[in-house]
Amino acid sequence: MRFASKTILYTALLTAALAVQAQDATPPAPPAPAEPEAPVTDAPAAPEAPVATEAPAAPEAAPAAAAPAAEALPNGIAAPPEGKGQIVFFRESKFVGGAISYKVREGETELGKLSNGSYFVYVAEPGAHAYTVHSEAKDILNLEVEAGETYFVSGGVSMGVFAGRPNLSPSTQSAYEAVAAKLKPAKPLKPKK
């Protein structure tokens, strides 16, 4: 039940972002002003020279809903590599749970460690992915990654019985940009021996 609600939440956030993008489309151009009428005279009109007409311009294609952003992201994050997607995992600096850090995993693979006020970028193959974090409780975020897209995932900590409970939530680029100046890159994971 908990996994389905996160998927529904992610779908709702993505739908809202696409609706905002559609509203931001450029408005239609205002109509051209009418030409003034020629004065009426009694003289016979001279034959007009043929006017060259241009072929009508092809309508501009609307940008695809899933088109990647051309602008650079804060903290030097570039577009994902060709044929791949990327996820920006970030955790805003907060007092509550500030001493707790946790690893983000996909299956048994450790992707990065989120401590208070940190971020890391993970490049992923297109398709369905399940990212997990856990301490005394486990939290899973299911994400469908598309090639050329950048996704944002916010990490947090809620208070548990014995320890803080890490969690992952779908987020937006604007939420990331609002805290990006205060974030530090996550420390690289130590290789397992």
Description:
This protein is α+β, with helices and mostly antiparallel strands and 193 residues long. It has a domain at 2-11 and 79-183: Sandwich (Immunoglobulin-like), CATH 2.60.40. 15% of the residues lie in helices and 31% in strands. The protein contains 2 helices and 9 strands. The strands form 2 sheets. The protein has a 5-stranded mixed beta sheet with strand order 8-7-1-4-9. A 4-stranded antiparallel beta sheet has the order 3-2-5-6.
Let me know the number of strands: 9
β-strand percent reads 25-35%
Task: Indicate the overall shape.
Answer: globular
- Given as residue ranges, the uncertain stretches (5+ residues, pLDDT < 50) are 1-23, 49-70
Gap between N and C termini, in Å?
37 Å
Q: How is the biggest beta sheet arranged?
A: 5 strands, mixed
Q: Count the DSSP helices.
A: 2
Summarize the amount of helix as a percent range: 10-25%
Summed over residues and divided by their number, the pLDDT gives a mean of: 72
Q: What is the CATH-assigned architecture of the domain at 2-11 and 79-183?
A: Sandwich
Question: What integer value in Å does the Rg equal?
Answer: 26 Å
CATH class placement of the domain at 2-11 and 79-183 = Mainly Beta
Written as H for each helix and E for each strand, in order along the chain, the element string is: HEEEEEEEEHE
